């Protein structure tokens, strides 16, 4: 089962914290992952605090379940979140494939698709800073940045990441797509470039700062 275990771990690596836009495996949110001889995948998840937002927690547990269940050779998924104030509700709801609203009757008003889209748009905005910042440092003008297309940029992991985030939320992501877009997918004019890049920078810094905080809290909570 070594090969299957590796495939399950790789699948978990595709699951991201929606706010931090990082894989749960890199964030060390996966505390245990085993696969039995008959293909039962057992996964345990943990979060930085006891009171992490239930909607974020639900997304990660549900996404992890779906990702592992899709691995060829996995016969059953046993996934659970530990040490969280609504862990039992989340675990039962995900196992039953009930949906967030059904799992939290009278509390949740809608499913979490729009919340996921909001954070994907933020991740796409932050990704523009990663790609545009070196161009600004190299002397590109607002006019050049406003007319730059994704296909004009050299291949990189940051470019792949931006394209994936845009694709997931339905924003232009092909080679002819503008480098700079607002969260609704509208192009940025040369006059708007300075303010847009400041917003992109602040968004990126905020996401990365939250990531550092979560890592610190998780490390202190579990002494890792």
Automatic annotation (TrEMBL):
InterPro entries: FSCA_dom_sf, MIP18-like. Transmembrane segments: none annotated. It comes from Pseudonocardia adelaidensis. Residues 6-78 form the MIP18 family-like domain. It holds the Pfam family FeS_assembly_P. Gene3D superfamilies: Fe-S cluster assembly (FSCA). This is Iron-sulfur cluster assembly protein.
């Amino acid at each position: 089962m070594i090969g299957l275990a590796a495939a399950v771990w790789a699948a978990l690596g595709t699951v991201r914290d929606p706010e931090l836009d990082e894989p749960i495996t890199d964030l060390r949110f996966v505390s245990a992952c085993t696969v039995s001889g008959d293909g039962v995948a057992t996964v345990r998840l943990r979060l930085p605090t006891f009171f992490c937002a239930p909607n974020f927690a639900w997304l990660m547990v549900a996404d992890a379940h779906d990702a592992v269940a899709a691995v060829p050779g996995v016969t059953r998924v046993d996934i659970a979140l530990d040490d969280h104030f609504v862990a039992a509700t989340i675990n039962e709801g995900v196992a039953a494939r009930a949906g967030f609203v059904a799992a939290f009757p009278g509390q949740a008003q809608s499913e979490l698709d729009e919340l996921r889209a909001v954070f994907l748009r933020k991740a796409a905005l932050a990704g523009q800073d990663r790609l545009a910042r070196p161009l600004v440092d190299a002397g590109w003008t607002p006019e050049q940045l406003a007319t730059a297309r994704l296909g004009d940029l050299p291949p990189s992991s940051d470019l792949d990441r931006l394209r994936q985030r845009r694709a997931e939320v339905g924003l232009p992501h092909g080679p002819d797509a503008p480098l700079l877009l607002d969260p609704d997918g509208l192009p940025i004019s040369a006059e708007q470039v300075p303010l847009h890049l400041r917003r992109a920078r602040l968004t990126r810094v905020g996401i990365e700062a939250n990531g550092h905080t979560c890592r610190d809290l998780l490390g202190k909570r579990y002494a890792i």
